[in-house]
Amino acid sequence: SEAELDDRIRAAKRTLGERVVILGHFYQREEVVAHADYVGDSFQLANAAKAHPEAEAIVFCGVHFMAETADLLSQPEQAVILPNLAAGCSMADMADIDQVEECWEQLADVYGDMDATDAEGLVPVIPVTYMNSSAAIKGFVGRHGGIVCTSSNARTVLEWAFARGRRVLFFPDQHLGRNTAKAMGVPLEQMPMWNPNKPLGGASATELETARVILWHGFCSVHRRFTVDQIDKARAEHPGVRVIVHPECPMAVVDASDESGSTDYIRRAIEAATEPTTFAIGTEVNLVQRLAAEHPQHEIFCLDPVVCPCSTMYRIHPGYLAWVLEGLVEGEVRNRITVPRDVADPARVALERMLAAKP
Ligand code: 13P
Ligand code: SF4
């Protein structure tokens, strides 16, 4: 039962003490968040993974790419554990390393030497990957002078990239790329989308010549469900409503909202509201429901009435958490995530560039 699992997790945690740190993403279910030492967005959790060198093990309640990132940023002898290995991210899977390598070769045919700088000291393209990507993709980016971003620092990271390159190749999330670049004043005509199944990504040579941001064709299946109609309905039914959405939502949805930002931005915006307010939120439902429970003075609801969970985040069932913790108690490391050395070294470079990038 739920109560039994809760007791087992508590007992194992008590036995392990400081030997283990449990990190939980905002989208995790309540029964998991209850046991996390740190709850945060993907940027905060990457920092948390780096900040606990004393722990033998980091149990990451989130999805695979987050656990890989934790492995890259933690100490080599620390074990990073993903309670359920089937907790992936469909968006991260949309940028396949072979397709990305192929894209880069085709771009080199158009732009020439990818390492050569022009009169202004800029290379033709800087690759930027969203945190929501495999370690292999982060490694690619690291090897080609690029950088990682999260939804909380995408703008800062794009500024970093534009200071070094004429253009950005942004993957996997077309929406975060488009929404961020648009907010920075990049015209839509200068953001062609790369379709890996077509020659030159389906773009013309002229489009690629004038491009500022080349977008990859990925998206988040949770956030793409939000619509402008839902926002119109929320405004009609709740005059004065504040609509806040995640930048993984399509551009029209971000444009129709009042504000957009990372999961932690959404949390802080609600926390900062001094007057009782109605909030319509466009992000994963577990976070929205938790925020609603924590802030009874406000009315907080998810824009999608049919509930909008991230099915892979949900795969971290408390039963798996109990199982990996009890493994540690018995001296057995279960479900360890290890990034191979040849990928890890360049991937870490790309991550460290992000951690050092200043607004
Ligand atoms: P953030 O936690 O960085 O806002 O990202 C949301 C997300 O989709 C994580 O998978
Ligand atoms: Fe991936 Fe979307 Fe789930 Fe985040 S919410 S883990 S981007 S599928």
TrEMBL record:
State the similarity comment: Belongs to the quinolinate synthase family. Type 3 subfamily.
Q: Which residues bind iminosuccinate?
A: 25, 42, 130-132, 151, 246-248, 263
Cofactor binding: number and manner: Binds 1 [4Fe-4S] cluster per subunit.
Q: Which Gene Ontology BP terms does the record give?
A: 'de novo' NAD+ biosynthetic process from L-aspartate
Q: Name one GO cellular component term.
A: cytosol
Tell me the protein's name. Quinolinate synthase
| Predominant location | cytoplasm
Report the EC number(s), separated by commas if there are several.
2.5.1.72
- Boundaries of the shown chain within the full protein: 79 to 437 of 449
What function does the entry list?
A: Catalyzes the condensation of iminoaspartate with dihydroxyacetone phosphate to form quinolinate.
Which domain of life, per UniProt?
Answer: Bacteria
The cofactors named for this UniProt entry are:
[4Fe-4S] cluster
- Pathway(s) per entry: Cofactor biosynthesis; NAD(+) biosynthesis; quinolinate from iminoaspartate: step 1/1
What keywords is this UniProt entry annotated with? 4Fe-4S, Cytoplasm, Iron, Iron-sulfur, Metal-binding, Pyridine nucleotide biosynthesis, Transferase
Give any GO molecular function from the UniProt entry.
4 iron, 4 sulfur cluster binding
Naturally occurring in which organism (per UniProt): Microbacterium ulmi
**What catalytic activity does the UniProt entry give for this protein?**
iminosuccinate + dihydroxyacetone phosphate = quinolinate + phosphate + 2 H2O + H(+)
Sites binding [4Fe-4S] cluster sit at 89, 220, 310
Q: State its location(s).
A: Cytoplasm
